Amino acid sequence: MSERPPISPRSPRAALEPSGPAARRSAPNAARNPFVVVGNAIITIVLVLMIGAGGVYVYGKQKLEARDRCRRQGCQHSGARGNDRHCRYLAARRRDR
């Protein structure tokens, strides 16, 4: 007969509790397919570039439309940085006349 440790009786509540910490199951880095890693990187870069290009497009379109609006109102000066502060000033002066 082999010597076994005595079985300690457990209450039903204690039997439902886990006996120890659950082991984490994570895939090692070697198990990940390199094509998947490269594909995810390419898709991420393309997505970031598309969002950036969209932002630049919207910003540039607003600036160009502001200059066109300024020129249509009769203002020839659109400011050093493309802002239409001077145009608004001249339009306000024309309204006050």
Description:
The protein has helices at 12-16, 34-72, 85-96. The protein has 97 residues and is mostly helical. The chain has a domain at 35-96. The radius of gyration is 35 Å and the shape is elongated. The N and C termini lie far apart (114 Å). The mean pLDDT is 75.
Summarize it.
This protein has 97 residues and is an all-alpha fold. The protein has three helices and no strands.
Structural topology:
Layout: H1 12-16, H2 34-72, H3 85-96
Number of strands: 0
Report the sheet-strand fraction.
under 5%
Overall shape = elongated
- Look at the helices and sheets and give the structural class: mainly alpha
Main sheet makeup:
none
Average of per-residue pLDDT values:
75
> Distance between termini?
114 Å
DSSP helix count?
3
User: Percent range for helical residues?
Assistant: 55-70%
Q: What Rg is obtained from the alpha carbons, in whole angstroms? A: 35 Å
